[in-house]
Write a structure and sequence with these properties.
This protein is of the alpha/beta class. Helix content is 27%, strand content 25%. The protein has a seven-stranded mixed beta sheet with strand order 1-7-6-2-5-4-3. Helix 1 packs across helix 2. The model has no long low-confidence stretch (mean pLDDT 88). The site of adenosine-5'-diphosphate has 18 residues, from helix 1 and helix 2.
């Protein structure tokens, strides 16, 4: 697990943008955390890092949105409860873009139906209003060769132990 701290919404976006160059086709990122933790902000930074030109919005009525970038970005938001059933019906593996990167705003609602490989990013409210803690946990072997690089790009935000 890699623990980071950000000091503003732009800081979180900047952190996410630094991760983008490490992303590969078929990657899945699972974003966990309460409402307002910064999952959409993280996705927006990631999109910027992927060279996505269109604005990434928080889709209130849309489960899935796709964006063109260096790699295609698929943004899934399961915040709404009816999205949970939709997602279970669809199955996360069916949503995964083999050629692109899939980001799921998970909101902690569902823990089943995940494929065995993903990068989990758990966001928590920090002490100050604009502080957030981010804990990144690679699950499965896909991220193992990239761990050193991941730690390196996250250097400015790493929480000292
Ligand atoms: P979520 O998608 O998890 O519900 P959003 O990204 O939509 O959260 O909203 C995060 C809110 O918190 C925004 O209003 C943003 O401006 C604010 N914020 C304050 N500090 C931070 C931070 N360090 N990182 C991310 N968002 C932050
Ligand atoms: Mg959101």
């Amino acid at each position: 697990m890699i623990a980071c701290r950000t000091k503003s919404v732009d800081d979180t976006k900047a952190l996410a943008a630094e991760i983008a160059p490490l992303l590969q086709p078929a990657d899945l990122l699972v974003l966990a955390g309460d409402l307002g933790a910064g999952k959409t902000a993280f996705t927006q930074g990631l999109a910027r890092g992927l060279g996505v030109a269109d604005p990434v919005t928080s889709p209130a009525f849309v489960l899935v949105r796709s964006y063109a970038g260096r790699l295609p970005l698929v943004h899934v938001d399961v915040y709404r409860l009816d999205h949970v059933q939709e997602l279970v019906d669809l199955g996360v593996p069916e949503l995964l873009d083999e050629d692109g990167v899939t980001v799921v705003e998970w909101g902690d609602v569902v823990t089943a139906a995940l494929p065995p490989e993903f990068l989990e990013v758990r966001l928590d409210h920090g002490e100050g209003d604009d502080e957030r803690g981010l804990r990144l946990t690679p699950v499965g072997p896909a991220w193992a060769p990239r761990l050193t690089a991941l730690r390196q790009v996250l250097g400015p935000w790493l929480v000292e132990r």
